[in-house]
Amino acid sequence: MSIKDTAEEWEVRATDTPFTGNKTSVRTDDVVMPDGSVARRDYQVHPGSVAVLALDGQDRVLVLRQYRHPVRQKLWEIPAGLLDVPGENPLHAAQRELYEEAHVKAEDWRVLTDVYTTPGGCDEAVRIFLARDLSEVEGDRFVVEHEEADMELARVPVDELVRGVLAGELHNNCLVVGVLSLVAARHGDGLEALRPAQAPWPARPFED
């Protein structure tokens, strides 16, 4: 038996969008269940995101500490951001986020993993990249605002992040998935066996 997620779409009898925000919206679908009944499902429609696990030569991960209002916490995270344009190349978006949030560039990019953050209530898909061979970017820094104005930046050893994840001290989805995927890849076929940075992404198709 092959353990692999597969595409499938059940019949939708009716759909409505009761809320439209700046970047996301809420959709209500009446979905036909396998027994023929119809159930209403509400979910957030999301453009998709990218995240970057940036690993330096001392085996440290570049992390940011930022206030997240919905959970009322300051979370340690890896650089991440929205796909601003439908069909946007996720690698280009990831490179932009690494520059804007950390003023860093990377020479080696690979796909670490792809995830749906909360598939029971949101269609957000995130591609998490591994970025290596880091260097500081010359020139002016990106002007930050809102929550990012209070953002902290650090480089933390991989082992310390793993300890924090397993101790329940670190909670950001992309950081947790990214760090544990890095460790799993190292103990598996190795980082060089990871997918190339331009690997297809069916959840958010893009052009090179």
UniProtKB/TrEMBL annotation:
Keywords: Hydrolase. The keyword Hydrolase applies. Pfam families: NUDIX. GO terms for biological process: nucleoside phosphate metabolic process; ribose phosphate metabolic process. GO terms for molecular function: hydrolase activity. Residues 44-178 form the Nudix hydrolase domain. One of its GO terms (cellular component) is cytosol. PANTHER family: ADP-RIBOSE PYROPHOSPHATASE, UDP/ADP-SUGAR PYROPHOSPHATASE. This is NUDIX hydrolase.
